[in-house]
User: Fold these one by one.
Assistant:
Number 1:
Amino acid sequence: MIIVTAGPNLFEKGIVSELCEKGLGAIRIPTSKQPPLEQINKIADELKSNVKILIDLPGAKYRLNNPNNYSVKKGDILTISKNEMIYDFVGQLAVYPKIDFDICVGDIFVIGDGETAFQVIEDNTEQIIVKVEKDAILGPRRGITPECKTINYQVLTENDYQNMSCLSNKTITGIILSFVENAEEIVKIKKYVKDTYNRNVEIYAKVETKKGINNLSNIVSEADYVILARGDLLITAGEEDFPILQEEFLEKMKSFSKKAIIATELAHSVGTNYLMSRSELTFLYLIGKMGYKNLMLASETTVLCDPIEVFEKISHLIDFYANHKK
């Protein structure tokens, strides 16, 4: 199963209908930046009944409030408000939801998937003052995550519960939960959906912390699918532990490969190059020969690539590698 993510490129007329004809498995609808039904309505006329629609609930992932691209330079000093009510940038960067962990001078906040980082140089009750570590253009509402700091992630926020009201639309077949670290969280959500909307939907559990990797055995017992969310795993675990935890996931999930989905930066190079990058091809070959065939494309189908081209290339390669005999 190949999952694509909704975004500007996917919304172009005819793209979804062609992907459906080519065997698309599911469409991921991110809810962090745009209402889910608003996105679904853009592609509703092109959907096929056998294609799953999944709403991705971000949980308590901290984000900056810029609705448009925001340029920063190395050495810039920025003031970031802790007032989570400043949802849209009006001359003042802010973080939402409300920060509920301790901040120390010297802490590093990784921005987005690692495009840049901010080092804390001052902190008080109202704001954080940071220094930019690397030039970057920040996309709208990029994540801001403390590096290698243990956080008690809230799987669902009040905003997520509001977005779940779209489950009254039977087109939606599944929920993607972020920062899942134990099975109890999944059980709770299943009960809520059943009690509130009188229906059952598939649960896709994103594993993106060391604690989540450690608890894989009980998470897989309750989730319909488990997603290796490599983007936030790198940020929460750090460069040293990331490949070790990734390998641990792949080894632990071997027996459940049909329930595993691999995500994040699988084919970025398709957007700019004729040939895919060596590192991307090597990783696809590795997971393919281990039996992993479920992949989730994110920015590849939202802004970086032609969704048809990247879908065809990835579908072919993962099948080829999975069936390759020495």
Number 2:
Amino acid sequence: MTEANNGPQAEEKAESKEPAVTFVHSSNFPEILDRLGMTLALTTYQAGKLCFLSSYQGRLRLLMRTYNRAMGLFAHPGGLLLGTNNQVWSFVKAPHLLPLYYPDQKYDNLFMPQTAYVTGAVAIHDLFLLEKDICFVNTLFSCVARVSNRHSFVPLWQPPFITRLMPEDRCHLHGIALQNGRLRYAVALGSTNHAAGW
């Protein structure tokens, strides 16, 4: 990956007038990533960034892309899902295209945007695949939902104390966990049933 302060990425930042990004890390962090053979992907809600941290020649590298209110992120064998301000993005792995797009760079993978589902501003805090369905935590409507080609979302589950699906963030539902491919746990900041009651 390209470091945030040099190469083509730096030129893009200079042109877009984005502030320089600095970061501090443990001295052994690049070695840990290298030993595990992994890249760490994360989102920054307020800055609206999808970030990839990796190690190359003993140094930590940061690659960032801008997505409005990037929050939920889910990696699966075929790619990534990203929840943003009003969309769910589906990216597919395309390492075979690396020589075409980045012939002089040492990247291990390329994620190409394939589909974007418009959900409206529903505060997507978490995403996952349920069988083949793209699903997400719809914090504004206090439910777990799936994407749809016809609707903003299709509700799948809501906490038992939520009596109506209203755009009121009644309990601040914001996380889920699966077990054996099924919804098992949900995380909310309260068991309230009124607007912003948490």
